[in-house]
Amino acid sequence: MAGTRYALTGKVAFITGGTSGINLAIAERFGREGMQVAVLSRSQDKVDSAVERLKSIGANAIGFAADVRDYDALEAAMAETATSLGPIDALIAGAAGNFLCPAEDLSPNGFKAVIDIDLLGTFYAARAAFQHMTKPGASVLAISAGQSLVPIPNQIHANAAKAGVNMVIQTLANEWGVHGIRANVLIPGPIEGTEGIRRLVPDEAAKRHVTASIPLGRFGETGEVADLAAFLVSDAAAYITGAVIPCDGGALLTRARLSPVKS
Ligand code: NAP
Ligand code: COA
């Protein structure tokens, strides 16, 4: 799919967490396709630098420094996006937090923080976007993770949060089909050079272990996930909704169990 174009020119995307890693690669891919892109994350510096980068590739881009746990801030950002760029064609719910911690050491607030960002943040974003998704072909795409389907030790918070994300999206697919809105889940596998991998696969031994468990024998690239995202929000995917689609080199088929963080 690399290099394939999906007739996205002029459409409007709103991407939570779109200022780094996989989500920024999606923003860039959309921008190169001629989409107008709004990105949102907490750090003003990251927002400024992402908007600058998107503008440097010719995209019409705006950004918001806000927390997806703040529903009112999301509503305000979506409203400003609709006013400045037009109704939202594609919402990418990509903001997330994760870290390694055994369940017995995880504080209640540590569990809550990740549930709030990933799960509440996904529902909040979709709920706030709904009123602006008025054009034919609009869709929601959540960036989930393999642990939504198969639990990984030391990530009870993300396992639960991402499983909830899948269910939120499938419920929306069911409810919002009547409004002409599709909703899908994209499951990236281990993606090279990302914050997620820095946190969850922190050393060479863990990386070798994960690589050996991937049928295609390598980590993925951010651009490979972005290619699938571009397809899924386009009219080429007009009959795809409620789907949970991995882009993971087959990793879900074997799913490496990483060593516990405690010896
Ligand atoms: P990343 O660069 O850290 O992306 C996370 C983004 O979310 C950042 O832009 C961050 O920016 C934003 N964010 C975090 N908390 C937020 C909050 N409360 N409100 C608003 N924005 C917030 O990590 P990544 O590894 O590329 O992950 C991107 C997505 O892919 C995540 O959904 C992750 O679960 C998923 N994923 C990644 C991998 C992988 O291999 N990396 C594998 C499977 C799934 P700020 O710090 O500025 O808020
Ligand atoms: N191990 C165990 N607990 C941790 C932790 C870790 N590595 N990091 C944070 N926590 C706990 C904190 O101790 C706190 O609990 P407490 O109040 O009982 O002490 C709770 O989590 C919230 O921490 P805080 O730093 O206040 O949260 P935050 O809302 O500022 O940040 C995180 C959210 C914790 C998810 C942070 O790691 C983050 O911002 N991540 C975004 C980037 C990211 O994770 N990218 C990869 C995506 S896959």
Q: Overview of this structure, please?
A:
By secondary structure, this protein is an alpha/beta fold. The chain has a single domain, classed as NAD(P)-binding Rossmann-like Domain (Rossmann fold). 42% of the residues lie in helices and 14% in strands. The chain contains 8 helices and 7 strands, in the order βαβαβαβαβαβαααβ. The chain has a 7-stranded parallel beta sheet with strand order 3-2-1-4-5-6-7, sandwiched between helices. Helix 1 (21-32) runs parallel beside helix 2 and helix 1 (21-32) crosses helix 8 (222-233). The longest helix has 23 residues, at 108-130. The mean pLDDT is 96. The protein binds NADP nicotinamide-adenine-dinucleotide phosphate and coenzyme A (COA).
Task: Kindly list the characteristics that best describe this protein.
binds NADP nicotinamide-adenine-dinucleotide phosphate; single chain; Rossmann fold; alpha/beta; 263 residues; binds coenzyme A
Tell me, rounded to a whole number, the average pLDDT: 96
Cofactors, ions, other ligands: NADP nicotinamide-adenine-dinucleotide phosphate, coenzyme A
**Apparent shape:** globular
**Helicity, as a percent range:** 40-55%
Which second-level CATH architecture applies? Answer: 3-Layer(aba) Sandwich
Specify the structural class. Answer: alpha/beta
Percent strand equals 5-15%
- Tell me the number of helical segments per DSSP (H or I, 4 or more residues long): 8
Number of strands: 7
- Major β-sheet strand ordering: 3-2-1-4-5-6-7
The oligomerization state is: single chain
CATH superfamily: NAD(P)-binding Rossmann-like Domain
CATH topology: Rossmann fold
Poorly predicted tracts of residues: none
End-to-end distance: 43 Å
In the CATH scheme, the class would be Alpha Beta
Largest sheet: 7 strands, parallel
Q: Nearest-angstrom radius of gyration?
A: 17 Å
